[in-house]
Amino acid sequence: MTVGHDLLKAVQRRTGTALFDRYIAAVIVGFFASIAALTGVLDFSILFESAGYPDLSDGIFKWGLLIVVGFAGVFAGSFCLPRKNRWIGSIVLLVLGVGFVSFWLVVVSFGLFIHPAPINSASLLQAFQSLITALPLAMGSTIAVVIHFLLRPKPSSS
After folding, report:
1. Which of 8, 34, 12 is nearest to 144 (CA)?
2. How far is 93 from 78, CA to CA, in rounded Å?
3. Cβ neighbours of residue 56 under 8 Å, at least 6 residues apart?
4. pTM of the model
5. Which residues have C-beta within 8 Å of that of residue 114, sequence separation ≥ 6?
6. pLDDT, tens digit, for every residue of 65-116?
7. Please, what is the end-to-end C-alpha distance for the chain in angstroms?
């Protein structure tokens, strides 16, 4: 058992599958962290609406809450990666996350699962307007990328 385990570890070091496994874990952790943040954001938004501040659930406040969701997903997911790979991994998580959200926003806006809508200028405008929702997520994710870039290990000069 130990010989097989040692052999597996040696193969993983040579092929980089351990790093690949960490990237898979980073995607999963990032997804669940953003879902947890979204749940908290929705609770926070509902709290403000029930307190008599319905305007706070729209506009800039909504963007601020979605920035938190994007930041939480990328920042939490990138901690699954080795320190030297975190800022590059956070870029990968940003692209995957915004791509995933954008894809589903377009799918929902065209109604591709229930009754596909004909593609015309009005439906394209609706799809574009729904993609604007992905902008604050991308902004929050970019903040996490910048933080990891600034905290990356500096190359040693010796």
Report:
1. 34
2. 8
3. 45, 48, 49
4. 0.75
5. none
6. 889 999 999 999 999 888 888 889 999 999 999 988 888 877 776 666 666 6
7. 41
